[in-house]
Amino acid sequence: MAMALLPACVAAAAVSDTVRIKDIGRFGGWRDNMLVGYGVATGLAGTGDSARSRSTRQSIANVLSQFDVVIPPDQVQSRNVAVVMITATLPPFARNGDRLDVTVTSMGDARSLLGGVLLMTPLKGPDGRIYALAQGALSVGGYKYDVNGNVVQKNHPTVGVVPGGASVEVAVGTDLMQGGQLEFVLTDPDYTTANRIAASVNATLSGGLAVASDAATVKITVPEEYRQNMVSFITRVESLNVQPDRRARVVVNERTGTVVAGGDVTISRVTVSHGDLRVSVVTDYLVSQPLLVRGTGAGVRTEVVPQTRVGVTESGGEAVQLGVGSTVADLVQALNRIKVSPRDMIAILQGIKAAGALRAELIIQ
Q1: How far is CA 117 from CA 19, 80, 130, 139, 165, in A?
Q2: Closest CA to 213 of 28, 1, 2, 9
Q3: DSSP letter, residue 222
Q4: Of residues 192 and 297, which shows the higher confidence score?
Q5: 3-state secondary structure (DSSP) of residue 75
Q6: Quick check: 92 and 30 in contact, CB under 8 A?
Q7: φ, ψ for residue 208, nearest 5 deg
Q8: Among 237, 232, 225, which residue's Cα sits nearest to residue 182?
Q9: Residues linked to residue 318 through DSSP beta bridges, in sequence order
């Protein structure tokens, strides 16, 4: 019975490794666009830019001049205003009236944007055109209060967001088809995966429509009957299943002591010897206090005498031996049995990689 169930388990594992084509890449021309703007946030409770910020004074004067209020910049003394930069992402196929979330960051010396309101600000693209207008109340997930040198702060109060605070004014069109072809771009370029995508498309849509031009791009010819119905064709292509090829990688985070590796990352025959050397230095401070009696001379005083002890403890080294075909998971289990710390485990993996026994790319973050 166990032998009969084994092929079914292997087949189930193979099916589980397949993913949709749309989950491992995108079509050429499908991209986000960055928007940026310069504006003014008002309504701050005395936590805005100080009078030293000339750009803030000039910006306030410019805003007031639009309402026929003319004030010289050097006469502006408000601390309820801060100059800010606004950023947003314009998605593909954006239409007039769509709402975008915007991020607002302080440019001057404002202490906090809490309670502020962003005045209407145009958001421009790299070509200098205005694509959206942003305005609204700021949502700041923190605060900062400073009174008489005492500071109480939570999170980062000089950055805020305006959910749905920008309105798209210029629609963005996206032309996916160029010369009768679609280009599918892989997020993680790989020749094997690109070839499997082309094979999957050709097996489902007969006619040899797809060809992998390089490790990152698969060119797909759109049949004549689908050129007036691109949505249906793209839906069929991106819903196809393919098994992506994975590169052997081990990711190490030295700050947190985390090691992440695929279960199939193998290690050549290797022996690891791990020892532990501990050096402790302890200093005790002894105080010599003279007797307080009459006639004590002027040179007699209290003396602090340090007493330092150095101790060295070296535990016996323990060895771990792995045979041919062992994986990183086997190594981690063996090291856990001899109670190796995560940071020592990272050092061991680096040593195994330097010895040429780790058959994977070691990525240290």
Answers
A1: 45, 11, 21, 9, 11
A2: 28
A3: P
A4: 192
A5: helix
A6: yes
A7: 60, 50
A8: 237
A9: 274
Which residues partner with 150 through β-bridges? 147
Q: Which two tokens stand for residue 176?
A: 């996916």
Say what the pLDDT of residue 288 is: 66
Identify which has the larger pLDDT, 227 or 284. 227
Q: 22 phi and psi, to 5 degrees?
A: -65, -15
- CA-CA distances (angstroms) from residue 263 to 236, 278, 325, 331, 353? 32, 34, 12, 11, 17
Q: Which residue has the tokens 């702060």?
A: 153
Which residue, 88, 89, 87, 96, is CA-closest to 172? Answer: 96
Q: Which of 58, 160, 173, 166 is nearest to 121 (CA)?
A: 166
Give CA separation, 262 vs 251, 329, 330, 361, in Å: 9, 8, 12, 11
Alpha-carbon distance values, 157 to 45, 48, 49, 121, 167 (Å): 13, 11, 13, 21, 25
Q: Are 219 and 213 in contact (CB under 8 A)?
A: yes
Length of the chain in terms of residues written: 365
For residue 130, pLDDT beyond 80: yes
| Closest among 252, 253, 179, 182 to 218, alpha carbons compared | 182
Give CA–CA dist 334/181, Å, rounded.
53
Which of 65-79, 247-261, 294-308, 330-344 comes out lowest in average pLDDT? 294-308
Q: Which two tokens stand for residue 290?
A: 């003279």
Residue partners of 335: CB distance under 8 A and separation at least 6: 272, 274, 320, 344, 345, 348
Amino acid found at 255: R
Task: For residue 253, count other CB atoms closer than 10 A to its CB.
Answer: 14
Domain ranges of the chain: 33-168, 175-242, 248-275+319-365
Query: What letter would DSSP give residue 223?
Result: P
Closest CA to 247 of 317, 296, 192: 192
Q: How many helices (H) and strands (E) does the chain have?
A: 6, 21
- Map residue 357 onto helix, strand or coil: coil
